UniProtKB/TrEMBL annotation:
Organism the protein comes from: Litoreibacter ponti
Signal peptide stretch: none
Protein's name according to its UniProt entry: Carbon monoxide dehydrogenase subunit G
Pfam families assigned: COXG (PF06240)
InterPro entries: CO_DH_gsu, START-like_dom_sf
SUPFAM superfamilies on file: Bet v1-like
Domain of life where this protein originates: Bacteria
Amino acid sequence: MELADEIVINAPKDQVYAALNDPEVLKQCIPGCEELIKHSDTELEAKVVLKVGPVKARFSGDVVLDTEGAPDAFSLTGKGNGGAAGHAKGGADVTLTADGDQTILRYDAKAEIGGKLAQLGSRLIQSTAKKLAAKFFKSFAEVVEERTPA
């Protein structure tokens, strides 16, 4: 499954990048996130509860950031286990482009799922993933814009 989109955030690029690396901001924005622990600058551990169709699962997983191209671009990879509901793994490439006082955030993500979740059908999985991504980025833009001095 692949997802790609872009959003415009009314904040300078350095603030957007800093927020993407702030566990408190991420925890606030990730749908269903119960816990987000930063183990290092590039390693995070997350606990997230998600409902996909009739399946509700608590996932625990690890995320690794590759900040080599920062602050213009970075990528992340992660894998999570939802017990009987299944498992997921994937990654995303994110680019940040300054546009005056705004920042254009583009992402290109790929994910693979297995277990019960995989049996739900690709349409339901794809639409749920799109909704979750849209919800995350909408929340993220709002939080960053609130923190940006006028």
